Amino acid sequence: MRTAVFKVLAILLPLVLLVVAEGVVRLFGTDPFVIPVPGEPEYQTVNPAYASRYFRGFVPQVAYNPFLKEKPDSILRIVTLGGSSTAGYPYPFNSGFPERVAARLRSIEPTRQVEMINLGMTALSSHVLRDITPHVLQMKPDIVLIYAGHNEYYGAYGAGGPNRRRILTRTLFWFKKSVLFRRFERIISPPNESNRTMMAQSTTDVAITRDGPVYAAGIENFEKNLAAILRSLDRAGIRTYVGTLVSNLRGQPPLGVNSVASEAWEHGQESWVLGDTTAAMEAFVEAKEYDPIRFRAPEAMNQVIHRLAMEHGVIQVDTESFLATQVNDSLFTDHLHPTAFGYDLIAKAFIRAMEENVNVQSLDLGAPDPSPLDAAYARLLIARLRLGFPFREGLTEEEEMRQFEQILEIHRESGSAADSLAALAVTIQLPIYEALLEARTRNLAILDTAQALAHTRSLLYWQPFNERMHVQAADLASRQSSNLAGEVMQLVVARQPSEINLNILAALRLRQGAFRAAGILLHQIESSYPESPVMLYNMARYLVLTGDTLNAEVYFRRYQRAAQSGR
Predict the structure, then answer these.
(1) Comparing C-alpha atoms, which of 567, 393, 519 is closest to residue 110?
(2) Is 39 left (phi over 0), alpha (psi -120 to 50) or beta?
(3) Which H, E and C letters describe 364-419, residue by residue?
(4) β-bridge pairing 114-118 and 76-82
(5) Are 291 and 253 in contact (CB under 8 A)?
(6) Which runs of E-coded beta strand occur in 492-559?
(7) What is the DSSP secondary-structure string of 318-332?
C-alpha cells in the first residue's frame, strides 16, 4: 500500500512542482489579452505584446482602440478579425476599412458612440483567429466583422509551415496558455534576428501546387477554424458579417514559376488589350489559382466563406462582387493590400450589407485621403516589401537594406516634411504619433490648414483622450466644409459631445448638404440645450433648406430673442 502511495506521489510531484512554478511565474506577468489604459481607469485596450506568443522575432502591430471596461447598451461595439488587410497595411490602422466602416456608421447615428476594436494583425492565420475568439466574446461586441483567408499558407501556423496538422496546432496553443511554457519556448527557440521582410521569413514551403496536400490542408484548416469561430459567435448571439476575399489580379503577375499560371497571365494581358475584359479577368483568376506562391487566397476560400455563411446564418459581404468591376492595380498597393480608396470600397461593401439587414443608410461623402505622412509611410513600407522575396530574388539581406537606404535617403532629401518624417517613423527613429504631431506643427506654421487637418485626423486616433487636441481639431474643422472636416468633427463629437462641438458638426453637415445628419444633430442639441442661439439659427437654416419655411420662421424668431438676451 505504502509503495503504491509513494508511486502516486512520485508521479504527482513533478506536476505539483510545475503548477507551483506556473503560479510563481504568473506573479511577474501573464501577458493578458487586454490591459488598462494609463490614466484612463474606465478604459482598456488590446495588449500589443499578446501576439508575440504566435511569432518568433516578429510581433505584429495591433490597432490602438481603447474601449470601455463596462459596456453600456447605448454604445455600438464592433470587433474586426483578420490579417494585414484588416489591419490596414501598409497604412497605419486609422486608414483601414474597419475605421472607414466606423466613420460611415457615425454618419448614420452621429450622436451614438461607436467603438471599433480592430484585431486585424499581419500574418494571422485562422488558427490564431480561432484561438483569440474567446477573448472576443469577453468583449461583448454587438457586431463582428471578419475578413480573413489570405494567410492560410504562410501566416502564423499556416499550412506551408512546419505545424501543418490542425490537431498539433490546437494542442500547441493549449500549452501556450501556460506562462511557463511560453518562457521555456523562448529559451529553446530564440527569435530569429533578421531584417528580411515578413513575407520572406514566412515562406517556408515555397512551391505549393494546386490540389496538392499542402494546398488542401490550407483550405481544410480555414474551413474548420472559421466554422468553429462562427459557431462561437452564433451561440453568443453576436451579429456577424464575413467578407469574401479580393486580391490584385490584373496588376500582379504570378509570384512563382508555373507554366499554366504564366500562360494564363499572358492570355489575360492580351484579352485586356483587345477589350475583352471578361476573358481577361477569367484568365487572371486562373493565373492566381495556379500561382505556386500562395500569398493570395485561392477561390476555394471564397467558396468556403459562402458555404459557411449559409450554414451558420451569418451575413456574407460580397466584397469580391462589389469590387469586381474595379479589381485592378489602381486599387492595390501590392499583390493584395488595397490602397486607401480600395479600403473604402471594402468598407462600403460591409456598410451595404448592414444597410440591407439593419435598415440604415450612411452618408456617402467620399473617404478623405490619408494624411501626407500616412501616405508616405505606406509608400516606404511597400518599397521595402518589393525589395524582398518573392518580388525580388537573388538579393542578399545586405543588398536589400542598402537599396532601401537609398530610397529612404530620397525621402529625407525630398524637401517634403511628410516624406522625411515618414522615413524616421518607418525606421523606428520616431514614433509615428510624434511624427504626425511634428508634421501638423509644420503645416500650421505655414498656414496649410488642409494638411494640418489631415494630420490632426490621424492624431485623434493615436491620442483619443487628448482634450487639447480635440479642441484644436474642432477649431480647424469649423473653418472648412470638406469631407475630411466632417469626419474629424464626427470624431471630436464621439469623444466630446458638448453643445459647441455638436453645433459645429451640425453647421458643417448643413454646408455639405447632409440634411438628414444635420437634422438628427439639431434635434439632439435642442433636447439638451433648447435655447442655444447657434442651434436655433442652424435649425431655421435647416428648415428653410428642407422646405419648411413656416417652422423656419418660428425658429428664427426664437433665435433673435435668444441672441438679444445675450445667451
Answers:
(1) 519
(2) left
(3) CCCCCCCCHHHHHHHHHHHHHHHCCCCCCCCCCHHHHHHHHHHHHHHHHCCCCHHH
(4) parallel
(5) no
(6) none
(7) -HHHHTGGG-SGGGB
* Per-residue pLDDT reduced to its tens digit, 480-524: 999 999 999 999 999 999 999 999 999 999 999 989 889 999 999
Cell of 469: 487636441
Residue of 292, 332, 307, 354 lying closest to 114 (CA atoms) = 354
DSSP for residue 95: G
Q: HSE, CB side, 13 Å, CA atoms: give it for residue 346.
A: 32
CB atoms inside a 10 Å sphere around CB 334 = 21
The secondary element (H helix, E strand) that includes residue 133 is helix 126-138
Q: Residue 88: left (phi > 0), alpha (psi -120 to 50), or beta?
A: left
CATH code for the part of the protein at 34-256+291-358:
3.40.50.1110
Residues 6+ away with beta carbon under 8 Å from 57: 191, 192, 193, 194, 201
The residue with cell 501590392 is 334
**Closest by Cα among 249, 256, 259, 254 to 282:** 249
Measured torsion, CA atoms of residues 145, 335, 250, 299, in degrees rounded to the nearest 10: -50
pLDDT (tens digit per residue) in 48-103: 989 888 887 778 899 999 999 999 999 999 999 999 999 999 999 999 999 999 99
Domain coordinates of the chain in residue numbers? 34-256+291-358
Q: Please, which pLDDT band fits residue 207 given cuts at 50, 70 and 90?
A: confident
Which residue carries 501616405 as its cell? 375
pTM: 0.91
- Strand ordering across the sheet containing 315-317: 114-118, 76-82, 143-147, 239-243, 315-317
Instruction: State the cell numbers at 370.
Output: 490619408
Write the CA distances from 389 to 200, 384, 399, 553, 557, integer angstroms: 5, 11, 13, 68, 70
